[in-house]
Amino acid sequence: MKKLVEIHILQNYAPSNLNRDDTGAPKDAIFGGSRRARISSQCLKRAVRQHFYGLVSEGRLIAKADMAERTKRVMDALLEELDRKGHTDKEITENKIRLALEVVGLPVSEDGKNEVLLFLGKKEIGQLAEIIEAKWDELDADNGAEFEVPEGKKKGKGKKEKGENPKLKEEILKVFDGGKAIDLALFGRMLANMPQKNQDASCQVAHAISTHAVEREFDFYTAVDERKPEDTAGADMMGTIEFNSACFYRYAVVDFDKLQSNLGDKEVDGLAEKGLRAFVEGFVISEPTGKQNTFAAHNPPEFVAVTIRKNGAPRNLANAFENAIRARKDESLTRVSADRLVQKGNSLKGVYGGEEQTFVLNPVGAEIKEFGTETVSLGNLIERTIEAVRG
To answer: What angle do CA 69, 57, 377 make, to 5 degrees?
Structure first.
């Protein structure tokens, strides 16, 4: 039975510039005919992964080995692994690594970086180092790898020269199975040079949009040279920062079966469950870091709903705000948005039906009616979610 875990969040941020475009302005989008504040899904996923690393440092839910690394510096990671195994000659080790990566079409540039950004599990990197160590003599750093020449191209019986090495290639390719990395299993990856090793994401994250129309605002600032004589007018530095303040609707959905499949995990309380717990917590709590030193807009969500949907299609409720919210004087923008969200959720439930359970964290005090069951804390919300997924 297919199980989807959907997360709906309303989060009202004070003046901020959490996710900016190439001009430094807060990102936005036209939705329902009006300009809305926007935070990209890439930015939100990055914040969740940073939260995961926080969990690792706390020793809670996720271990470092359960994570992946996005980098062009796979060479550096492998050098560290092989150095720990006693291969301390950097030049020789670099050549071995370079040859091993070339076997599977991941060439390394002169500066030691891969040509493309790779997303590899920590375990994949560790296993790759083990293969390089095991094939140390086969990877000839001076004359190139001692590869078998493909059939029909041999120049002499039993002769070997630089060329394809199918066995070694097959061994290395086996390493790229995702390494049971939770973030890789959630967000997926694309390896252009090894498309057979791509992994479809088990999680989808929408761009967050404001429930109401926004206009860009500008903060003019100056800085004063503190050694400047007091009687001199003017500033020694000035500029402007664009910002806005918006109540965002955020949405994500996790295909729990796909998450289990990506992790090779079918246990009730296994790695996939840990990943789901970490993701729900991270998606609710984490926040983008853009310009936070300037704005300190640390405003937690005031409405969170998690729906566990079985054998049905996911439902992004952004259309609850197709007509931009216009809160009246003394009305809470978040509360009005929550009422609109609940109304849309109930409306779609009546039309499309389906088996679902919804748990709601409701500090804003919205009238949730038959929309779902209220919970008292984020911890309680996560526990109820996990119980429903198990059921």
So the answer is: 110
Average confidence (pLDDT) over 7-27: 96
- For the chain, the farthest-separated pair of C-alpha atoms sits apart, in whole angstroms, at 91
| pLDDT reported for residue 149 | 43
What contacts 352, CB < 8 A, 6 or more positions away? 312, 313, 315
In 234-279, where do the E strands start and end?
A: 237-255
Measured distance CA(68)–CA(278) in Å, rounded: 15
CA distance 18 to 23: 14
pLDDT at residue 145, rounded to an integer: 52
Contact yes or no for 78/128 (Cβ under 8 A): yes
Would the CA dihedral through 259, 264, 267, 270 be positive or negative?
negative
What gap in Å lies between CA 76 and CA 94, rounded to an integer? Answer: 9
Element (H, E) at 34: strand 34-39
Lowest-confidence segment of 36-45, 142-151, 352-361 by average pLDDT: 142-151
Report the distance separating Cα 157 and Cα 204, nearest Å: 54
Q: The whole model's pTM is what? A: 0.89
How many beta carbons lie within 10 A of that of residue 193, not counting itself? 14
Return the amino acid letter for 167: K
DSSP codes, 346-372: HHHHHHH--EEEEEEE-TT----GGG-
Distance CA 169, CA 335 (A): 58
Helix axes 122-134, 74-84, angle to 10 degrees: 60
Q: Shortest CA distance to 135 belongs to which of 90, 97, 85, 81?
A: 97
CA proximity to 391, closest of 355, 365, 345: 355
CA distance linking residue 203 with residue 108, whole number of Å: 31
Q: What are phi and psi of 208, to 5 degrees?
A: -75, 135
User: Are residues 118 and 106 in contact, defined by beta-carbon separation less than 8 angstroms?
Assistant: yes
